[in-house]
Structure formats: C-alpha cells, structure tokens
C-alpha cells in the first residue's frame, strides 16, 4: 500500500518517496521517518507494496504532487537541514537539475558486506565525464520533477547510475551541495544478497548508454 503524509502549508515543495521493505518498518518508523519530518517537506510517500525498489519508486512518483522530488531509502538518516540545503541550491541555480552529496556508510554486518566495515563516499564535484566511469551520486538526491526520467525497471542493478546518466543525456546537470553529508545504515546483507553479476550490470549500463 502506498501511504501519503501531507504536511501543513509553509513546508518545502518537495515530495519524498520511500520504497519500504517490510522487515525494516521498525527502523524506518523510529529512525528514518522522524528525520524526514524534521526536514519540513510537504509530502512523504511510503510504498511498501511488493516489487523491486525501482518499481516502488516509480509508483510513488506517480502519486507525488510537488515540483521537487527526492527518493530516500528506508535505511537512510538525513540531517535536519539536508533537503532545505538542496532545495535552496536548486532555487538559486535554475539551470541545475539535481543536487547531491556524498555519504557515510554504517555497516552492521561487516563480515558479509563487500566493504568489510564502515566507509565513506566523498563529496565529488559534478563531472559529466567522470559519471561515465562510475556512479558517485547517491539515489538520495533532490531533483526537479521535470528532470526525472523514471527508473529503468528492466535493469537488475545500478539503476541509480543509469538514472543520472539518463538525466545528463537529456541535458540535465548536477551540483554538489558543499559541507553536507548523510548516513546510510546497512542493516543486513543488502547488495551482497543480489545474485546478479556486477560485471553484467556494468556491461548493461555501458551498452545502453553507448560508452
């Protein structure tokens, strides 16, 4: 079921869309949702239907009403000023399609995670050329509604990389939010439970975008 929480007037004109896993409901309700509320957004859309995360995100987007969109996973903790900082940057730069940051990964099961412990994805300035070599932009990125091309539900992995490559191919540009980050909690095996080959996933992206 897709649930929508609408806030009062005076909030940021942002729809936050969360693909919720049923086994993360408690963490989401107690840790993630309060910080989304602290970010003072107009609309929080939670989709706990069956299906892949890209499918849930696309379905949530179709319910969204605001001119700015942000996807937030159910294991992400944002600082209270995160979305407002991204929104202010986009307001000041009307030619920019999306605003992003790096993040800190908190790994609860290092024995089964490919990073084998906590890690950091640093803040990297936007470069269209660098994006072809690998994704440095998180799904937790504020974007203009009209820039969002929908997630490709046919891809098995790396749908976020494909998303930003598509936005850039369509003429959109990104901008790094300086001096800001968030925390991603890896509560279970996560990506290690994905049996789809990373090599095959990278090959599919390169074939689709012809590089």
Q: Can you give a write-up of this model?
A:
The longest helix has 14 residues, at 25-38. It is built from six helices and eleven strands. It has helices spanning 25-38, 53-63, 82-92, 128-131, 159-169, 198-209, and strands spanning 2-6, 12-19, 41-47, 68-71, 76-77, 98-100, 103-107, 119-121, 142-144, 174-176, 183-186. It is of the alpha/beta class and 211 residues long.
List keywords for this structure.
22% strand, 6 helices, alpha/beta, globular, Spore Coat Polysaccharide Biosynthesis Protein SpsA, Chain A, 11 strands, 211 residues
- Indicate the structural class: alpha/beta
Number of strands: 11
In the predicted model, the low-confidence regions spanning at least 5 consecutive residues are none
CATH architecture: Alpha-Beta Complex
Radius of gyration (Å): 16 Å
Percent of residues in helices comes to 25-40%
CATH hierarchy, class: Alpha Beta
CATH superfamily: Spore Coat Polysaccharide Biosynthesis Protein SpsA, Chain A
Number of helices: 6
What is the helix/strand order?
A: EEHEHEEHEEEHEHEEH
Question: What can be said about the biggest beta sheet?
Answer: 7 strands, mixed
